[in-house]
Design a protein that fits this description.
60% of the residues lie in helices and 8% in strands. Strand 1 and strand 2 form a beta hairpin. By secondary structure, the protein is mostly helical. The protein has a three-stranded antiparallel beta sheet, with no helix packed on it. The protein contains three helices and three strands, in the order H-E-E-E-H-H. It has a domain of 86 residues. The radius of gyration is 40 Å and the shape is elongated.
């Protein structure tokens, strides 16, 4: 019984010492010293209680998974933007080539006195239109096949 009584008293004293407080001492040169031990000319400072906020109940595996999903989502957004930029560039160039092609009857250039040169240019324009239309089709398919936002 004596032993239990002694343990209770020691615990009570220990608790009181741990809540001793903070003291502020200013010396003759104006230097400020903070301590948990009272000294001469030291004033006790009343500090507000410390607020402890518990961490969210998410384990590190879930956090890593969220980070990975966010990175994947950002990567998909970047790919989507790049594909959209390529599509707009390809559409612009296709429009320019079609305007020059004029439904198979483009204007003859001064350097095309030889009719075969004109026909060769018409054929090159037709091939370029076909290539650009295929490119657009491929790019649109790629864009469509990108997964939606990751949750």
């Amino acid at each position: 019984m004596n032993r239990n009584f002694l343990v209770v008293i020691l615990l009570t004293l220990g608790t009181g010492l741990s809540q001793a407080g903070v003291y502020k001492h200013v010396d003759e040169k104006g230097n400020v010293t903070y301590s948990n031990v009272p000294s001469s000319n030291a004033k006790k400072i009343d500090l507000p209680p410390i607020v402890v906020v518990p961490s969210p109940s998410v384990n590190s595996g879930e956090i890593e998974e969220r980070i990975a999903k966010r990175r994947e989502s950002m990567k998909l957004d970047e790919q989507r933007e790049q594909l959209q930029n390529k599509i707009s560039e390809e559409e612009k160039r296709l429009h320019e080539v079609k305007n020059e092609y004029k439904d198979g009857v483009p204007d003859r250039l001064g350097s095309e006195r030889n009719y075969q040169r004109y026909l060769n240019r018409v054929e090159r324009l037709r091939e370029e239109i076909n290539v650009r239309e295929r490119n657009l089709s491929i790019l649109r398919n790629e864009l469509q096949n990108l997964p939606n936002k990751i949750r």
